[in-house]
Amino acid sequence: MQSPHSLESLPQSLSQWSVALKQFPYRVCPDQGLVETREALSGAYILVWAKELLIPDFAVLRPLVDDSTALNFCGLMPEAGNICVLLQSQADSQWCKDKLAGLEFNFDLVVLDKLPDLSQPGVVLMDMDSTTIQIECIDEIAVLADIGEQVSAVTAAAMRGELDFEQSLRSRVALLKDAPQSILKQVADNMPLMPGLQCLIDTIHSADWKVAIASGGFTYFAERLQQDLGFDHVQANVLEIENETLTGQVLGPVVDAQAKADILMQLKQQYSASQTMAIGDGANDLKMLAAADFGVAIHAKPLVQQQAQMSIKHSDLDGAVCILRAAKMLAA
């Protein structure tokens, strides 16, 4: 081992550390020094990212280091507009999560048992409303139909897991009876994409993975996203329309929490995928997130943040790109 680099001797911005350190990994010592090492670890990975990371941010991870548990600093790289840092612990993921429990960070941090391997087949399944796009489509339809407050209150309660999803969906759709079909196009023409969505889709397709939508929303909007952005598969609920008017009914079975998890497994088999990632924000996404190898909550409700494998709180879908490409830091 070479003599340690003290944090005081390193640039304040972690984005410049790769120039100063030259080669990875380094062992993070209890006194916060970094010592070059060839000794590999076999515990959990800790991935950290933000637009900017400074030494005080890095020092917040001190609970992961003690005299009996090693932590390797495996590398860093710019990715999707972020600075990404990859560490590996000697301990398992539950130990790391317990050590970090209750701490608040001004950057995103996830703990993983393994890293995605983009060289092997995979599929990413995404929720639509408040995940691929920044709105809840049914709330926007309701605003145009002059019943916005009635519908949005039910939507919020359903996403928090306070209501049965199918029952809440059918009751909201019933309120839209006699609304003109034309308002669907108005909403579809103005759907704000979640930042980082195009970068995520490009990353997925460049690795020959597949990307799909499973939504408790509506096919009208999911199919528009598929047409505009190239999703490989979309599945959502069908609004009944007669004489260019909404009937207030949903046709066929509702895409609920169990349906989303089932769709993930169907796509895994269909595409012969060895890895799956699911991304969502609401309580009806929890089964899908649990069924995936990498379940990612994004800007999620508290219940979902608590139960999901990992949670993106500060960044957007560019954070999912960081997770997918984290293994590149090991090969760099």
TrEMBL record:
Domain of life: Bacteria
GO molecular function (one): hydrolase activity
Pfam families linked to this entry: Hydrolase
Keyword annotations from UniProtKB, A to Z: Amino-acid biosynthesis, Hydrolase, Magnesium, Metal-binding, Serine biosynthesis
Keyword Glycoprotein recorded: no
Cofactor section: Mg(2+)
This protein's pathway: Amino-acid biosynthesis; L-serine biosynthesis; L-serine from 3-phospho-D-glycerate: step 3/3
Catalytic activity: O-phospho-D-serine + H2O = D-serine + phosphate; O-phospho-L-serine + H2O = L-serine + phosphate
Family the UniProt entry places it in: Belongs to the HAD-like hydrolase superfamily. SerB family.
Full protein name: Phosphoserine phosphatase
Taxonomic source organism: Agarivorans aestuarii
Recorded name of the encoding gene: serB
